[in-house]
Acyl-CoA thioesterase (Paramagnetospirillum kuznetsovii), 134 residues
Amino acid sequence: MTESIEISSAPRGRLSTRAIAMPADTNPFGHVFGGWLLSQMDLAGGTHAYRFAKGHTPTVAVEGMEFHLPVYVGDEVSCYTEVVRVGRTSISMQVEAWVRRHGGDDRLIKVTSAIFHYVAVDENGKKRVIEQGI
């Protein structure tokens, strides 16, 4: 894959997290582990879901994860989130991961996206009705 591939022209949703990819997050080839990127995306989606549902919303599924381009050490990873579905007790978020290359220009490059599904639970871990927030 080449850097010239433009998956989308601009991020959708709100900026929910931003992190710098560090050497400890990479495989021997210098690419960030997919699991690290997945966890960053889950943090972003989970934070947005928590705010929206006004409470604990554990992840129950991830749908359609596909890595388009690698993430390298020093890249600034930004995760954007958008609510795509709200059910009685569940919420689904479109989460996109974009990078600004270390040492490059300010151009954002989309590296992956997926739909994350969360379920609202009470203090006993039982499903609860979502009271919509932000």
User: Anything to note?
Assistant: The two ends are 37 Å apart (CA to CA).
